[in-house]
Structure prediction request, 91 residues.
Amino acid sequence: MSLTSIIAIYLLFWVMSAFVILPIGVKTHEELGLETIPGQADSAPGNFRPGVIILRTTILSAVLFALYYANYNYGWITRDSFDFLISPPNT
Prediction:
């Protein structure tokens, strides 16, 4: 696997992990007992911490990519592992 492929696949894992991590631990202004600004959405986060989100996302994506790369090298799960999902053609 080339370096550019590794970087591209890792970035895909990072973006997908970010969408998983974003809602974790976020509370609205109402839940925190803070005042809202007129026109502010009720669902707007009151404790958004981008540094924590980036750190958690990086850790999760690194673990997931390490599992992907290990599977790529050792072939634990291959395309043939899913043959039971496809019924053979009638001949």
